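Deliverable D4.2, example record:
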Amino acid sequence: MSELNTVAVKILENGKGILAADESTSTMTKRLNDVGVESNPKNRLLFREILFSSSSMTKCIGGVILYDETIRQETSKKNKIPELISKMGSTPGIKVDTGAKVLAGSPKEKITEGLDGLRDRLKEYYRLGAKFTKWRGVYIIDENFPSKLSIHSNAHALARYSSLVQECNMVPIVEPEVLMDGEHSAEDCYKKTSEVIQKCFDELILHKVDLTGIILKPNMILAGKNSKKKISNEEVAKLTLKCLKDSVPPEVPGIAFLSGGQSEFEATENLNLINKFNDTNFIMTYSYGRALQQSALKFWSKNIQNIEGTQKVFNHRAKMNTLAAQGKWSKDLEI
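Output generated by the structure prediction step:
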């Protein structure tokens, strides 16, 4: 077992998942504005510190993805945020891409940027306490998309990023997200996601990335938001598993799904079914942002000093997803 594999498995084992708290300042501002809370460094830190000091951090959350602002902040008790996360028994991580920009040559699509200067930024984040990283590539589905250009360009960037991250002794999360937006069928999502993931692994292998020391963060196989051809949760689980079995090399230790616009309940239910049907050696867990935080954020917004109540809401959602990551969740457990 490599040191990187040990870190990856520690983040994902025993039903634990990843809290994606890496919203950019502009995204977090929108989230706070939507619930009537002023967005400033103090309030952004307050909400995140409440989550990071909750009991579910020890029981359910194996890793937390941070944003550049957050990894540099201090808690109310003057501890660095990565120190708080580590103290709770979880693992601090960091988003390192600089966002998706228009792809030259295919202006309707995006390419994720951030490779320039990445080696030096990684060294700094490692000193600040990060043990793993995240980079997200995004792909749209349409009659002509994702294009070969988008698939190849984003796979190449994800591989170069991963190679640099492992060079710095951290675990890369590889996140190729085929977006839910659109009218496409689940079958289209299956075909395109398979193509995207397979190309990512072609590039990862070419760049000599240690596949035992990465975490894959893919979308589930879903019909588009505006599709008239919806499928059942069981079909979502079975198609998702088929896609991953056919596309992911067996050396990869674990898969942490993104929620990708699903509701909290949907993201939990689909994860549970995936694990009920899982006949692979992959750990199948969650790396959720909104699907872990949304209810807690709404509750907190009513009284931002109600720490205990907010943590109770967050702890419930985290517990539900950890049960789902073990195939042990049921609707009866929801409050």
